[in-house]
Amino acid sequence: MRIVRYHSPSYRGIAPSRSPWTGLEGEIDRLFESALGDHADPAAAGRFPVDLYEDKDNTYVRADLPGVDRADLSVELVDGVLNIRATRKTRAGEAGETASFQRSVRVPDAAVQTDKISAAYENGVLTVTLPRREESKPRKVAVTVS
Q: Is pTM beyond 0.90 here?
């Protein structure tokens, strides 16, 4: 292991309008760009963002998929992984392009009633509802004074 010592520059000569965080912001941007590689745009990598949220009874997976026909969506749960696949077809004159997107989300099998999973697609938004098993729902525990 090699230890590198960084010397912090003196900020006495810097004009007050320049933020000391400017260099750090650039380094963070560079780090994220290198982590994504050539796919800085998630859609270019064939992926799309999903939102995960839950309430007392269900866990929800929501994905914005504008321009995708309902027939071009596939949602399946295999070995504890929820797979969402979508194909968007664009028609520009005679030549049409097709873009495919896929996203996988790990779902704990023990916490979900797999036979009651449902999916709805409305206005370009896919919502998958994963009902929780009774055993995995939160329970309120009474605290007593002893």
A: no
